[in-house]
Design goal:
With about 90 residues, this protein is mostly helical. It has one domain. It has four helices and no strands. The radius of gyration is 20 Å and the shape is elongated.
Amino acid sequence: MTVTLNKRTEAIVRAQLETGRYATPDEVINHLIEERLSSETSPELPPGPDETELKSSLLGAVGKPVRPYVKGELVELARCAVGEDRST
């Protein structure tokens, strides 16, 4: 499919590419259309973080723990995460 953009829309796509958030014009257009459609169908839900923001946040959290983990703590967290320990 080929789509022709007007000058203003093309400038918006180029500006989004320059942020580094998107690798291709296709990604910009797809994201903006999906975002618009999802906001029209469920306006009460706030948009979730995009992939870049999520990755950055997770890498930041992994790289800088607030405190050292106690022996066995990660095992306990994993059990809770998969639902093995229903007491919490």
